[in-house]
Amino acid sequence: MAELRTLARPYAEAIFELAQAGGSLPAWSEALDTLAAIVSNEDVAALVGNPGVDDRQLAEAIVAIAGEALSGVADSQAENLVRLLAENGRLRLAPEIAAQYAALRAEAENRVDVEVRTAAELGDTQREALASALEKRLARQVSLSCTIDEALIGGAVIRAGDLVIDGSVRAQLARLSQSLAH
């Protein structure tokens, strides 16, 4: 996993710089997300790295499948990226490149995507209060993504990038148990 992250980083950073200079951050996001989805498809994934498949033909097939999503980026840059990745045997990096690009874009736009897992559904008032509190703590614009995790007894687990706030009842009981043991 770390190897993929390391290999993808220069691509993501270069694409981000190119997109930022060209004012095409949203178009590149769409192109990279589409490319990642195509490469992650099990049928396409079986062809990536297959010695019996010509890299140029695979790249052209991916470009054709992606269609409009890639053509939204000026001067065929996204199409050229697909060709470059295929030529260098790096198509499998597409999902990680997309993820790193999204993180760079979020950082530049001073926003963060926050995943909230709760034992029960949050009401609108609770979502707004949570988003407001997180915006104050993280000093960024927050985009909440809430899911229900029935494995939680109660409370919530909040994940914002590398920050994890575990306010679940299970975690609180574990901390209490540990403090009593000492």
How would you describe this protein?
The chain is of the alpha+beta class. The chain has 2 domains: 2-107, N-terminal domain of the delta subunit of the F1F0-ATP synthase (Peroxidase, domain 1); 111-181, Glutaredoxin (3-Layer(aba) Sandwich), CATH 3.40.30. The chain is 62% helix and 14% strand. It contains 9 helices and 4 strands. Strands 2-1-3-4 form a 4-stranded mixed β-sheet, sandwiched between helices. The longest helix is centred in the N-terminal third of the chain and has 21 residues, at 2-22. The chain is elongated. The protein starts with a helix and ends with a helix. The model has no long low-confidence stretch (mean pLDDT 88).
Percentage of residues in helical conformation: 55-70%
Number of helices, where a helix is a run of at least 4 consecutive DSSP H or I residues: 9
Instruction: Please tally the β strands and state the result.
Output: 4
Mean pLDDT equals 88
Give the termini separation.
36 Å
Look at the helices and sheets and give the structural class: alpha+beta
Over all CA atoms, what is the radius of gyration? 20 Å
Shape: elongated
What is the spatial order of strands in the main beta sheet?
2-1-3-4
Strand content: 5-15%
Oligomer: single chain
CATH class of the largest domain: Mainly Alpha
Order of helices and strands: HHHHHHHEHEEEH
Q: Which sheet architecture does the biggest sheet show?
A: 4 strands, mixed
CATH A-level architecture of the largest domain: Orthogonal Bundle
